[in-house]
Structures are given as C-alpha cells and as structure tokens.
Amino acid sequence: MRFLIVVSIVSIYLLSIKLCKFAKMTQRFYLDTSVFGGVFDEEFEIESTLLFEKVRLGLIICVYSNLTESELTNAPIHVRDFFEDLNEEHKEKVAVTPDVLKLAHEYVNENVVGESSLDDCIHIATASIYNVDLLVSWNFKHIVNVYRIRGYNSVNMKFGYKILEIRSPKEIVGYENEE
Predict the structure, then answer these.
(1) DSSP structure class, residue 2
(2) Entry pTM
(3) pLDDT per position as a tens digit, 41-59
(4) Number of domains the chain contains
C-alpha cells in the first residue's frame, strides 16, 4: 500500500512539473475538514495524499476558514499536526463573515439541506463568496452530491454568486494519468 502511494506521488510530481509549464496560475481550492482527515483514512488516503502533494508543490492554494480551524480542534492530534505543517505560503485563511452566514442560511431556507447541516452550508457559502476555483470534500451526503450541488448553485445564482464546482479529491487526482 505504501509503495503504491510513493509511486503515485512520484507520478503526480512528474505530471505536475509538466503542467506547470502550461499553467502559470495557481488554483485556489477550498478544502473542508474532511479532506485533512482523509490523509489518515485508509479509504481516502491515496487521493488525499496526492491532493496535498499538489499543495506542497504550490500548484494549489489550500483555502480554509476559521470554521475549518474550529472543526480541526476536535480532530485527532495527527490531523491537526498535518494541517499545521502545511507551508503557510500555500494556505489562505478566509473569514466566515455575516454575508457567508446569510448565504448559508439561504441554503437551509431553500431546503438544500436541513438545519443540522448548517456547518456544511457555511463551508459552501465561504467557498462561494470567496470565489474559489473548486471546493473539495469527502462529504458525499451533504456536499459532494449531485442533487445538493444543484441546490447550492441554484441559491448561488439567485443571489448573484457564480456556480461553485464541488468535487472529491478522487475526481481531482484520480484521472490525471488517463488520456
């Protein structure tokens, strides 16, 4: 298993170097808390590790919020340490503002998800308002779900925000070597 991860990381590194020649702009991805924990979850380890390798190479800016920091305080120490060890120049902290909270409540008011998923809505609203290139999550029930994504984006459009791309790490790094 570890050998596969190392081979995958080397492959992504080589591919990333190739991509750097064509793409001068670094992408800003909002990573919700599940992605950090994914590095230590057997089911999500490979794709999460590959995604963070792109962060380490400077190909992706890891956008996160004070909500993410708050949620990480309840995570195991190794997950918190992993987050803290990311290079500061490849991280961008954004604030949960009153506008973010207003948009998050609109998702609930429009029945995209229930009130118990308000924190998920705050992640979505934060990513929308800060105009990230992509929101990344392993939460398939409330975030990376085609019906929920349509709902979030319907509300975004209603309030003048752009459509937010929402993907799992697997969708980002899982198909790069296929032509």
Answers:
(1) H
(2) 0.84
(3) 999 999 999 999 999 999 9
(4) 1
